Amino acid sequence: PEYQERCRQGVQELLRDREPQEIEWDDMTQLPFLTMCIKESLRLHPSVTVISRCCSQDIVLPDGRVIPKGVTCLISIFGTHHNPSVWPDPEVYNP
């Protein structure tokens, strides 16, 4: 609730003397906390949880294993965004 109120206050301040009271894309640069909240929400609840990519060339991993050209790799966005070695307290909403 406190984050929502802080975002609401920021938007109200931005739109105070504006008519019509509509946010434009360029306004987001003046709303950094709202941007942080949106990004943190997408980190915790990504709209796309997995992506796939086809290797266009052989990829040699640091341990010497090779991912051959033509192999489709799956990348877990959800897993990356909830990985405690990447994010301290990955389940906590922290804009």
UniProtKB/TrEMBL annotation:
Keywords: Iron, Metal-binding
InterPro entries linked: Cyt_P450 (IPR001128), Cyt_P450_E_grp-IV (IPR002403), Cyt_P450_sf (IPR036396), Cytochrome_P450_Monoox (IPR050196)
Molecular-function GO term, any one: iron ion binding
Database matches in SUPFAM superfamilies: Cytochrome P450
One matching Pfam family: p450
Gene3D superfamilies associated with the record: Cytochrome P450 (1.10.630.10)
Domain of life where this protein originates: Eukaryota
PANTHER family given in the database record: CYTOCHROME P450 4F3 (PTHR24291:SF198), CYTOCHROME P450 FAMILY 4 (PTHR24291)
Family: Belongs to the cytochrome P450 family.
Protein name stated in the entry: Cytochrome P450, family 4, subfamily F, polypeptide 3
Species of the source: Mustela putorius furo
Taxonomic classification: Eukaryota, Metazoa, Chordata, Craniata, Vertebrata
